[in-house]
Cation-transporting P-type ATPase N-terminal domain-containing protein (Thioclava indica), 897 residues
Amino acid sequence: MSDIGQNDAFATPVDMVAKTQNVDPVSGLDQHDVLKRRDRYGPNQLHATEKQSALVIFANQFKGMIVWLLAFAAGLSFYYRDIAEGIAIVVVLAINAAIGFFTELRAARSMEALARMSEFTTRVRRGGTVLSVDAHELVPGDIVLLEAGDVVTADLRLAQASNLQCDESVLTGESVPVAKQVDPVAPNSAIGDRKSMAFKGTAITQGAGEGIVTSTGMATELGRINHLVQTAESVASPLELRLDRLGHRLVWLTLALAVLVIGAGIFRGHEVAAMIETGVALAVAAVPEGLPVVATLCLARGMWRMAARNAIISNLASVETLGATTVILTDKTGTMTENRMSVVRYLTSGADIVINRTGKSLQFETGAGETDPQADPQLGAVLRIGALCNNAALEQGNQGPLGDPMEVALLQVARDAGQGRDALQQTYEEVREHAFDQDTKMMATVHRDKDGVFYAVKGAPEAVLKVCTRVLEPDGARDLDAATRAQWQERSRGAASDGLRLLALAQKQTEREDIPPYEGLTLAGMVCLRDPLRADVGAAIAAAQAAGVRVVMLTGDHADTAAAIARGAGLGQGGQLTVMEGGDLDALACEGSDRSLQDRILSADVFARVAPATKLKLAALYQQNGHIVAMTGDGVNDAPALKQADIGIAMGQRGTEVAREAADMVLKDDSVGTIIAAMRQGRVIFDNIRKFVVYLMSCNVSEVLIVGLAVGAGLPMPLLPLQILFLNLVTDVFPAFALGFGAGDERVMRQPPRDPTEQIIDRSRWILIGILGGAITASTLAAFSLALHWLVLPTEAAVTVAFLTLALAQLWNVFNVRMPGSGLIVNEVTRNLWVWGALVLCAGLIAAVFWVPGLSELLKLPDPGRAGLLLALGGSLGPLVIGQAILRFGPSRWSGV
Ligand code: ATP
C-alpha cells in the first residue's frame, strides 16, 4: 500500500486517488483492509477527544490546598513525636485523595461516554454494501456517502457530486456554501478553492455525493487547526465555575477564622502545637474543595438519566440552563404530532371525497355514494399528480418506506387505488424536477407523455391557487374566476380547521419542458392528510404550563391547521389561543418597532407559515425580553436558530446531522414530552446541588463555630483535630453525595422557572445555613456542658458526648434540606435510597470507632456511659426539630432548598 496521508488529492484525478488509496470505489474496502488501516492510522479522532488519563486525574488530587494543609498537620504531629496521630492524618489524606480521585474519574468517564453518544455516524460502502459506522471508525480509503444535512467526518476526495454544496465556515470562516465538483483543481489551490474535496467538520447543505477518505483524525485539515478549534475541549459549566468561585471565597474566610481560633486559643493558654493542629483541622473541615467535582458528578448523573429518557445532552451547562428555561419554541410536525401521515380526504370541484380504508382496500366515498378512481377523471387526476410529483419510495422487501411521510402517504393511496407510480412512470416519463422550495411552498415535476409535456405541481393551497388560471371540473377545465377561487379558499380553510394538512394539486399540458413551472396551471383539487397528535403531548403541555414554562408552536403549515392541532394539544392560556403568521414578524425588522407588536408576538401561542429565518428572529426577541429559550429544529436551515437559542434541540430521528451539531440536546424520540422530562431533570439537578451545598455548608459552619466559640468562651476543647477530620470524612461526605443523587420531587415542576441570574446560595439560603449550623453548634455545646457539669463526666468522656452529638446531628441534618411544603415523613429526601444507604454507612463507621479495637484510643474517644450516650442522642435531635420547625412555620424563602 502506498502512503495514504495524501496532500495533493484535490489536484489528482479520482481514479488515481482510488489507486493510491488502494480501493475500488464500487465495492469499498473489505473488513480485513479496514482493520489493518485502523492499526496503522489509529481512530479518526482529534486529540482533544481523547480520554483523560487516570494518572492525570490522580495527580490532580494533590494540587488542592486541603492536601497541603493535611500534610502540614501530619508533619506537625511527627515533629511533636505523636506518631499515631501523624499516621492517622496521612490515612485521612489518602482517603480524601481516594474519594476525590474516584469521584473525578467517574465524572470524567461519564462525560466521555456521554460525548460518545452524541458522536456522528457515517454511511460508508464496505465489502460492496452500505453500512452506517461511528465516525471514529473511518479509515483512509473508505468510501463515504454524503447527502444534504450530513456533517463530513473525514477529509474526502469527491468521486461523485450531484448539486453538492458544502458549508465550510468551520475551516474558512466563509459562510456562503461552496459548490463542489469531481474534477481536480489547480495544485496550488487554497483550502477554500479545493472544490474536489469535502473536509472533516464541514456540513453538506445541498445535494448528494460520494468521496474517498484521504485523511482521518489529526491528519485532516481540521486536525491541523485543532489547536484553534478545540472542538471537544470540555468547558466547565457556569454552575461549576460559580461553585469554584464560592469555594475560593470560603477558603480565605476559613483560613482567617482558623488563624483567629489559633490566636484566641493560644491567648487562652491552650498548647501552641495543639491549637495549630486544631486550626488546620478546622480549615480542612470547612474548605468545600470538593464542591465543583461533586457538582460535576451530579450533573453527569443527571445527564445519564436524561439519556435514559431519550434526551442526549452534549454539555453540562445545558443541564443547568434547561432547568431555567422559560419558553419552549417547538416544531409541530413530528414533535407535537407523530409525523405519520395518512390521506383522509380529496377535494375536487365535484365533491368532497372521503377515504375509507379497510385493510389494504380503499373506498372513495362522496356524499352520493362510492366513486371509482378509474371512472372519476378528477379523482384520477389528483391521485396521479400526487404520485408523480413525489420523491418518496414505498416499502420494499424488509426496507420501510423512504422519504417525506406526506409523500409516502400520497404514494400509498395512489398504489392502493391502482395508480402505482412505477406503472404511471411508464406513461409519464420524468424528465425534470423543480425541488420543493420553502419560499414558493411548491414543487413540480416535468414528464413526457403521449401528448407532449406534462407538469405535475403540488404545494401549499394559497401558493398553488395564486398560480392557477384554470380549474378542472367534471366536464373539463374552465377558467378559474374570482368566485370559484374564493370558494376553494373557503373549502381549504374548512378542512384545515379540522386539523388536516392540505396540499393543492395542479397540472398543465404543454409542448416544452423548460418553461417556468408555476404559471398557467390548472387546479385539479386538494388532498387532506391527517397527522395524529402524539399520545403524550397533552400531558407534556399541561406539565410545562404547571411549571410556568410557555410552549409556543412554530410551523410551516397553514394557520388553521396549526390552530386546530394546537388546540388539540392544549396550548394557549385560559382557553384562548393566539395565532400569528410568520410574516407578522417582518415588521419587527425595523429598529425600535412598535412595542405593541412585540407584546402581541410574545403572547402568541402559535406561529404559522414560519420560515427558518423567522425562527432565529423569534428566539432573539424572546431572549431580549429576558426569556431563556429552548427551541427545536431539524433542517440544515434551522442550525442558526438552534445556535441562537439557549437550548437548541435537534431531532434524533428525522433531524439532520447539521442540526444535531448546532444543538445542545438531541431527542432520540423527537417527542415534546422528552423536552419536558429533561427540563424536570435540569431542575432536579440544580435543586440537588443546592441541597448538598446547604447541607455541607451548615455542617462545616457548625464545626468551625463549635471550636471557635469553645475557645472564645474559655471552655475545654470539645473536639480534637483528628475527630474533626474523621467527621469531615464520614458524616459530611456520604450524605452530601446521596443528596446530589436524589431523583427529585414532583413539586419541582409546580414552581415557576428559576431566575437564571440567581446565586446557588442566595441571601435566604445563607441565613438557613447560619440557622442550621447555629442549631448544631448550640446542641453540641449544650451537650458538652451538660456532660461536664450535669453528668460530671471527665473531660475526655464529655468530648465523646460532644463528638457523638455533632456526628448524629449532622446525619439528621439531611432531613432538613427537603423541599418546603413536602411531607414530614414522605418526601424526596426520605424517598432517596442513597440517603438511607449513606446514613447506615455513616452510623456503622461511627459505631466502628467504639468497636474496632484501638480506634477509640487513637481518636481519644472513651466510652461516655449510657447517660452520656442518651444525652448525645437527645442533643443531636435538637437541630432536626429546629430545621423541621423552620420548614413548617418559617418564611418559605428561607427553606426553599
Ligand atoms: P412543520 O413546520 O410543522 O414541519 P410544514 O412541513 O408544513 O410544517 P414546511 O416544510 O415549511 O412546513 O412546508 C410549508 C408548506 O409547504 C406545507 O404546509 C405544505 O403545504 C407545503 N409543502 C411541504 N412539503 C412539500 C412538498 N414536498 N411538496 C409540496 N409542498 C410541500
